[in-house]
Write a structure and sequence with these properties.
The complex is a heterodimer of chains A (504) and B (262).
Chain A (H helix, E strand, L loop, with lengths): L18 H5 L11 E6 L8 E7 L3 H14 L3 E4 L15 E4 L6 E5 L4 E5 L4 H8 L4 E2 L11 H6 L7 H4 L6 E8 L2 E5 L15 H7 L8 E8 L1 E2 L4 E9 L2 H11 L5 E6 L11 E8 L12 H4 L8 E2 L11 H14 L3 E8 H5 L5 E2 L10 E9 L2 H17 L3 E9 L13 E9 L5 H14 L3 E2 L12 H4 L3 H11 L8 H6 L8
Parallel strand pairs in A: 2-4, 3-4, 15-17
Antiparallel strand pairs in A: 1-2, 5-6, 6-10, 7-11, 8-9, 8-10, 12-14, 12-16, 13-14, 13-19, 18-20, 18-21, 19-20
Helix pairs in contact in A: 11-12
Chain B lengths: L9 E5 L4 H11 L5 E6 L2 H13 L4 E6 L8 H12 L13 E4 L7 H6 L1 H29 L2 E6 L12 H21 L4 E8 L2 E2 L13 E2 H13 L4 E4 L3 H8 L4 H7 L2
Parallel strand pairs in B: 1-2, 1-4, 2-3, 4-5, 5-6, 6-9, 7-8
Helix pairs in contact in B: 1-7, 3-5, 5-6
The chains are: A alpha+beta (504), B alpha/beta (262).
Chain lengths: 504, 262
């Protein structure tokens, strides 16, 4: 009998629907699933809270846990690899369902490029298995260490949003364990003849960016992107200031699948917004220089972590002085203009994944990632400028500041991307006035019709939520249908009032 | 829920008419505070504080009459406060109690207390026994809800006790030690304790007294407390320089302390 397989061990072509049977054994009693009280935070290492963590291995265990939560009136929330920055995958005093055990490939069609996987599979494991076989994930964020479930819950975007949209635009079907039962959902209201699901489009899109609050995604079917190699063909150029950077992106981004600018937030005055713009495409074998042009080695994807930050260093390693020094070095080492440079996927997409637990570098108080989007146009662009001015004035050092252009958003009510500019800032937590400054930025962003990214959020004022996400009520209406008793609750949901339930 | 910068959305106050507590609540109201339960002895005074907080935009303010020395009732008061704020069960979907501010206390009258053991015991019960029992009750709630912070107003008077106010000082020394132990007990549970050690604060309680060196105000203490919340500090000295002053003061030999401590 075929065994259910871990992605890394067995070629995907050997995996077929038969493996589903090994996943659906006799349902176990939920009381036998071990749980352990653990203190959890998001990747930003702020706002710890304790919950009972349960690791599930089979989908029916999730159904049993949801039934148990409903009986005991104790809330629960799913958690993948814990890469959301704030409190989205925490449920203080409740149950946190670790889904990373659901990491099986259930079905795959490597002719057309479609794969059905468990929600706990990571993009890392998918890439390891798929890249050598000529396929890539349709969208990847700045880290490979996110699960499919997390990618869905945040409706993640990558450097290719202007070209390919967000993750959920490449998902064709979801199986969701909701408090009202298991639901199959697909993006279109029109039923396709072969799967008979073809419905629940409202649940599908509420789940996109729904922060895990519409049910626990059990499995997903994803359309893949064909690639010839594991290499990227990269053009890099320096931009002298923000205007230069934005005009280069506006005029040239359409020629590239991937585009992103790193901005030096500590540069002030006429250098404000000086940047290094990196754009590229997947390299075909013919694009590579002769030394790399071997079909097997060119598609090798075996990233290794070189170093892990072993403990939380005392003091703050990342402070305005070290960040300013790093920024200066980064800007000066970038070429004025370089085209057609081959770079491996791992460093192009996930430079920080080479360092384990890099979030510890921010010290005991962790860090806050602030990511905003503002619509294209003068109001939004003015906000970008004022944000950079504010950071420069307060000398709030941002180690990573990333600017990119978004294409149009998708139909999801809580999805973050909208056509415009997005700026992401990593800020060390702790300085006096940081909270107030970010509150001020929120108001500016909202006034320009923009919003902040919930997957990064750890401090937004609840009253800003419906302004930034005007379709919040649509999300809440779908949620009430699939979770009438309000079993799915996260610390973020409580903090922001995401559920829209009356407080008792 | 407490956010990444340590700002709470809900709070329960033990000693809701304390001027320092009010200053802290006003400062928190400007940041995130949405729901407050004020407890205290004086119902009409609590009502005035509640009105003030509502005018500052705190959406839900409730008051509960509770005498902190009445330890038999601390359990029911904690349960009522939790119910008023909405527990963290699904139906409630609120975050429960983010902050417990322990501010109940009295200065007493040292010469009178020395002459009257019942008056002295009243100071000790109001400042130590009562708050300690109440803190245990709320610590249980914070522990089970897996998050929340307790802020305890101690005093530098308890760090090195002086002859001039040793009844008050010893009560604060006991409270401070109790809070330190409770802090250890809660380590790793998601709940935490922050001890605040103000110096001389010009308030109703100290009216008529000559200010000690490094005297401060309730608003300044509140600002230091908010800084402490932002930095997850286990101990906050107010003003901060008192940490250094008392690092030395602790080492001064008793005969000398008797002279300088006056």
């Amino acid at each position: 009998m075929a065994r259910a397989v871990r992605l890394r061990c067995v070629p995907l072509t050997e995996v077929g629907p038969a493996d589903l049977q090994t996943l659906s054994g006799a349902p176990s009693s939920s009381t036998t699933i071990p749980r352990v009280r653990r203190l959890l935070t998001g990747w930003g290492r702020t706002s710890p809270s304790a919950a009972d963590v349960v690791s599930v291995r089979r989908p029916e265990q999730i159904d049993a846990l949801i039934a148990e939560a409903a009986r005991s009136a104790r809330p629960l929330v799913p958690r993948g690899l814990g890469r959301s920055y704030g409190d989205a995958a925490q449920c203080a005093g409740g149950l946190v369902v670790d889904t990373t055990g659901l990491n099986h490939v259930l079905d795959s069609d490597l002719e057309s490029g479609s794969i059905r996987v468990g929600a706990g599979a990571s993009l890392h494991s998918l890439m390891c298995a798929l890249v050598p076989r000529g396929w890539f994930v349709p969208v990847t964020p700045g880290t490979r260490f996110v699960t499919i479930g997390g990618a869905i819950a945040a409706d993640i975007h990558g450097k290719n949003h202007h070209h390919d949209g967000s993750f959920m635009q490449h998902v064709t079907r979801l199986s969701i364990a909701a408090p009202v039962g298991r639901i199959e959902a697909s993006p279109s209201t029109r039923a396709s003849p072969d799967d008979g699901a073809g419905a629940n489009a409202d649940l599908f899109w509420a789940t996109a960016g729904g922060m895990g609050l519409t049910g626990i995604v059990v499995e997903a079917t994803i359309r893949l992107l064909p690639v010839e190699t594991a290499w990227m063909n990269v053009d890099t150029e320096r931009c002298r200031d923000l205007d230069d950077c934005m005009s280069k992106m506006e005029s040239g981004d359409s020629g590239y699948r991937y585009s992103v600018a790193w901005i030096d937030c500590l540069a002030r005055g006429r250098h404000m917004g000086r940047a290094v713009l990196t754009r590229g495409d997947h390299a075909r074998l013919d694009d590579l220089p002769p030394r790399l042009r071997h079909a097997t080695s060119a598609s090798r994807f075996e990233p290794t972590s070189r170093f892990e930050v072993p403990f939380i260093p005392p003091g703050r390693l990342l402070n305005p002085v070290t960040v300013a020094a790093f920024n200066e070095m980064w800007f000066r080492k970038a070429p004025l203009l370089q085209t057609g440079h081959p770079e491996h996927m791992t460093t192009f997409f996930h430079p920080l994944d080479g360092i384990g637990a890099w979030n510890r570098l921010y010290g005991r108080l962790g860090f806050i990632q602030y990511q905003l989007v503002v619509p294209t146009g003068s109001a939004g662009e003015g906000v970008l400028r004022r944000v950079l001015e504010r950071l420069g004035e307060t000398r709030t050092a941002s180690f990573l500041a990333v600017l990119k252009r978004f294409g149009p958003g998708d139909p999801a009510p809580l999805s973050f991307p909208m056509e415009g500019w997005t700026l992401a800032l990593d800020l060390a937590n702790g300085p006096a006035g940081l909270g107030e400054m970010l509150d001020d930025l929120d108001v500016m962003v909202a006034e320009a019709g923009g919003r902040v990214y919930l997957a990064k959020d750890s401090r937004l004022r609840p009253e800003m939520l419906s302004t930034m996400y005007p379709r919040l009520d649509e999300f809440q209406a779908v949620r009430r249908k699939v979770d009438p008793a309000g079993i799915l609750v996260s610390d973020m949901a409580r903090r922001l009032g995401l559920l829209g339930m009356e407080e008792t | 829920m407490n956010n990444a910068t340590g700002m709470p959305q809900s709070a329960v106050v033990i000693g809701g008419t304390s001027e320092i507590a009010q200053a802290i609540l006003r400062a928190l109201a400007a940041r995130r505070l949405q729901s407050v339960v004020l407890t205290g002895r004086d119902s009409s005074h609590l009502g005035e504080v509640a009105t003030d907080l509502r005018s500052l935009g705190v959406a839900h303010v409730e008051t509960l009459v509770f005498d902190v020395t009445d330890v038999a009732h601390c359990r029911s008061v904690a349960a009522k406060a939790l119910a008023l704020l909405g527990d963290s069960s699904p139906a409630g979907s609120s975050g429960g109690i983010d902050l417990v501010l322990v501010a109940a206390g009295m200065l007493g009258d040292q010469p009178g207390d020395e002459a009257d053991p019942i008056a002295a015991a009243d100071v000790l019960t109001t400042n130590f026994t009562g708050p300690a029992a109440t803190m245990l009750e709320f610590a249980g709630i914070l522990h089970s809800q897996g998050h929340g912070r307790m802020v305890v107003l101690s005093s530098v008077a308890g760090v090195r006790v002086r002859r001039e106010n040793f009844v008050y000082g010893s009560s604060k020394a006991g409270l401070d030690a109790f809070a330190t132990g409770l802090s250890s007990a809660l380590a790793g549970t998601g709940a935490s304790v922050m001890i605040v050690r103000p110096g001389f604060v010009a308030t109703r309680m100290t009216a008529g007294m000559a200010p000690a060196p490094f005297a401060t105000t309730a608003d300044a203490v509140a600002a230091d407390v908010l800084r402490g919340l932002e930095r997850s500090s286990p101990i906050v000295w107010s003003p901060p320089v008192l940490r250094k002053v008392f690092a030395v003061a602790r080492l001064v030999p008793e005969p000398l302390w008797r002279k300088v401590g006056r």
